[in-house]
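Researcher: Structure for this, please.
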Amino acid sequence: MKLSGARSDGRGANVVPQRRVDTNRFNGGVFGLGVAVLLVLWRCGGEIVFDADFADLTQMNTDFLDLTVNSLRSSAAFCEICIKKILTWDRPSPRPRVGARLKRPHPAAAPMLHTANDKKHPVQNNTQGEMIMSKHTFRGIAAACAVAALSATAPSANAQNLNLLCNATIDWCELMKNKFEAETGIKTSMTRRSSGEAYAQIRAESANPKVDVWWAGTGDPHLQAASEGLTEVYQSPQLAKLQPWARKVATASGNRTVGIYLGALGYAYNDKLLASKKLPAPKCWSDLADPKYKDEVQMPDPNSSGTAYTMLATLVQLMGEDKAFDYMKRLHKNVNQYTKSGVAPSQAVGRGETLVGISFMHDLMIGKVGGFPVTIVTPCEGTGYEIGSMSIIKGARNMTEAKRFYEFALRPDIQSLSPSAKAYQIPSHTEAKVPAESIKPADVKLIDYDQAKYGSTEVRRALLKRWGDEVSSAPK
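Model: Predicted structure, token format:
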């Protein structure tokens, strides 16, 4: 009997990346199948005769049980033997009856089985060549099979694994995962989420973390997680070679997070739609609240998207909190959709599904580089920015592997790979190559964004609550 390969399930809420077959889980599935077949056989064959005591499984020398507990853990041959034996037994009567035996076609077919006179052996033959198995024996076998199956699915003590939570685009997430696996041999499970969703997951799982490293996404939720003690203190040997803004995040968090890239906030409009609607080209934040753009603006939801929270915090710092919320109420009337992720509006504006899309400029640049008819706007009043960050989760199950990924992700050669994944952020390592498509800080009026204040738990929760109470619930 040949055992065929199996297809493994991907993990990830939004996108399912390609994964290799997990041989441990596959073998565990084979063992589980063997246990299930034995149970079905027991049920169909009736009660098993109480004619012998259970003996140590490792001492059984029949061909049916000629595998020790240790060999069960590593070999699928056990299932093959079980199935071969089952196929050689006569089919039982339709209705189970007390004392039913599992018959073999001929006594000679079981040369290794002991006779009924051997009372110490749990599997015996009677005078008619029938194989008799005690109920205790069968339960022992089933229990041993179950233990073997469970141990086969459990990771080896020497196995190297990493659970990665990624907030970048799926292309960049997969690039990092595949490159790290290829270089280190560490099996990496990657899940892609938006920043707000990632923070919610980390917080919900704090008592029993499922994630080892949280990579990318806006710095605000990383700082919030750090302030709540959800992330691990770790200072990289490469810290001194990072940009000042990346080190600033590390200092503000007590070295519980670090900056890995910088990206400025902005918006883009679709040139063809603008011409067909005969509307003026917007140049400032204030223009987007003009009634002439009613139902023409798409932006993410700050409750799930770090991009949108950065916008909210930016406007508060530019205008003051009350004026910023007055502006958001007027803008609300022009918004056609609040998307779950910050990348979505940049994609929608390129496809012509909305006139204006608010997003980070490096995401908007993907459409422009791809040939879509979009114009990127740096708002005239000034704009905020994100410091994409990375954190090791407190209580991570794979701490050694998490630190290896941390150092891997900070290396200049790895950060220089981002353009190949259409990621045009400014890298944090001073020796990394800056993509030609990246924004030029001198060309953008960046505000002095207070990462520490607007990344704090209290301020973030207060702003999101007010946005929910006054903006998203307001009528249009």
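Researcher: Any notable elements?
Model: Confidence is low (pLDDT under 50) at residues 1-28, 37-133, 144-157. DSSP finds 17 helices and 13 strands in the chain.
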